[in-house]
Design goal:
The structure holds two protein chains of two kinds.
Chain A lengths: L3 H22 L3 H17 L7 H21 L9 H5 L8 H11 L3 H12 L4 H8 L3 H19 L7
Chain B lengths: L1 H8 L6 H15 L5 H18 L2 H5 L4 E6 L3 E6 L5 E7 L3 H5 L9 H14 L8 E8 L2 H12 L9 E6 L3 H8 L4 H12 L6 H6 L2 H11 L3 H11 L2
Parallel strand pairs in B: 4-5
Antiparallel strand pairs in B: 1-2, 1-4, 2-3
Helix pairs in contact in B: 8-9
Classes of the chains: A mainly alpha, B alpha+beta.
Amino acid sequence: MRSDQQLFAAMERHADMVRRICMVHLKSEADTEDIFQEVFMKYVFSSQVFESEEHEKAWFIRVSINACKDLLKSFFRKNTVGIEEAIEPFQKDMDDERREVLEAVLELPKKYRDIIYLHYYEGYAATEIAQLLNKNVNTIYTLLARGRDSLRKTLGDEGYEE
Amino acid sequence: MKNRIQNAFEPIRASESLKRKTLAAVTSRRRPVAGTVRRHAVLATLLFLAVVSFGGYRVYYTPTDVISIDMESSVELSINRFERVISWNSFGSGGEEILESLSLRHKKYDDAVCTVINKTFLQGEDPEDMHVRLTVASNSPQRQRRLMETLAQGDGVLGDMSFECHAGFMENVREAHRHEMSLGKYSLYLELTEAGEELTIEEMRKMQMRDVRKRIQDKDPGDSEGAQQRKQHGQ
């Protein structure tokens, strides 16, 4: 079991990323709180040894995505809210440009969202995403290209080189 | 694109209150007995003993409602007046497997039903082949109505699954168990025989739920439409 100091440090390093992954999958604050607790609880009680910070980050990404997906599988899940409400807590830092792009990403089919986020925000290459999500590299390339096309259609062509 | 997406996600950060709540939840889980928590535990124990001495235990563990969940296997939950699960049974092959590793005791009834359906789904059942039939019986008609209304909301999130929620009778529960059947399946047996079907209780007990459904459809082909209506109205 990890110490409080290890927990605080991990939270400093990864809390924002876990929050963004929750944003990509979930819209409700209540669901986000549940996932947040679950992910850090798993971290504290996990016996996984991390070889590097990158290794630890990859673990947090995997566990967060899986926790979100498990939650979404629950048939009786309540708290289904719209994108507007999901963005609402960050309203004061959102100009029109940010809002437009964020809404376009969140409105993508869910199979594209993780990949777009991991590639464009976290900077992972397709091969690394394939490893992270345990998927075929070619599938990731395809999903990335389709996600990009879809964004281009929604937001226009301007500035959409890779 | 990279810059625009990075710029869009930049303000999304974990709030301090979210971090605080998470830290509080994780650290409290880590130290179950310490300081004030220990005092609370002692008080809670004393209170619990007091409640027990006044018969609370008996009240808590008296079933007032029964929910029968009939899919390919059947699981039956006994619910107390506080709407918590106090015991459960499985009937037919696969039922025990569903209940294995599930922690249902003291769970709110709707969470427990959800857990059982989820477990079946996660065992690899195809949603399009899944038929969920709930039968709710209660000592109180008001509580029965409330339970059914809540459970019927599940229909909206069950996707491709067929879903029905029916009322049953408490007086049939014991008889159903005597014949090693769930309340839901036994209620179906009564319906079929009342409609003139020639079917022995032993035959019914051995029948799979999919065969029971087929028999109902063969008897009354219009019933699939009726089931769909019940699905839509959550009745």
